[in-house]
Amino acid sequence: MIRLLLVDDQALFREGLHTLLSLHEDLEVVGEAGNGLEALAAADALRPDVVLMDLRMPVLDGVAATRRLLAAHPTTRVIVVTTFDDDELVFDGLRAGAVGYLLKDVSSDKLVEAIRAAARGESFLQPSIAAKVLAEFNRLERSAAPPPPPPAPLAEPLSEREREILRLLAAGDSNKEIAAALYITEGTVKNHVTNILGKLDARDRTQAALRARELGLIYFSLPPSSPSPLPSFGPPSLLSPWARG
Question: What pTM does this model have?
């Protein structure tokens, strides 16, 4: 059972999220908090496995709360769930120690997958956020001097099927979505992902995508900006007006 703490300054959004996550037998919402200071007290008392953290909140914001929470509870995993995807907030959240960054328009399946991945010790970034991280990585790489030597080729090359799965994995697709796209079983996808991580010497999907980019196996570009869609955690009439943080 994965113990969850929900941190968001909008009570109605927390309630909708609580209801959604309670539908999954392996997830248990053990507490809620309306700001970062309350989140620290709740984490001390409840010892959650994963914290879903909003960023813009009164009293203590999500970035500061994440940093202090992880200093006190380093084994807890924090996933940012917010409306805002501007670069400064993304990088501040990840630098504070968050292992995932999701926008509130994320599907329920993706959210649950991110929670389970975090509980396993993995990272999870929504594709649009991963693109920002990779773009920044590219910028820093270009500005570095002298340029680093080219990465060593893989000891064992990826098969064509593994390359297909890697491209979908790097785009943020879940195992279920990859299986549907390639007409294979989820178990087969899981086996391929394990092989891909081993061949790339990567500990998780995000690191695999970065390693593959270094090797020229995949390429990313930052998508054009677009208006933020409304949240999809529940009926728009219930959650949309409040899902702003």
Answer: 0.60
CA atoms within a 13 Å half-sphere pointing along the CA-CB vector of 175? 16
Domains along the chain with CATH numbers: 2-133+227-242 (3.40.50.2300), 152-214 (1.10.10.10)
Q: Which of 124, 126, 116, 110 is nearest to 49 (CA)?
A: 116
Average pLDDT, the chain: 81
Q: How far is CA 187 from CA 167, 183, 190, in A?
A: 18, 12, 5
Per residue in 136-178, pLDDT tens?
656 655 665 566 566 667 778 899 999 999 988 888 888 989 9
- Give the dihedral sign, CA 95/141/87/5: negative
In the predicted model, what is the mean pLDDT of residues 188-216? 87
What's the first-to-final CA gap in the chain, in angstroms? Answer: 28
Report the C-alpha gap between 80 and 97 in whole angstroms.
Answer: 10
- Cα distance between residue 90 and residue 85, in whole Å: 6
In this prediction, residue 149 carries a pLDDT of 62
Rounded-to-integer distance, Cα 178 and Cα 84, Å: 27
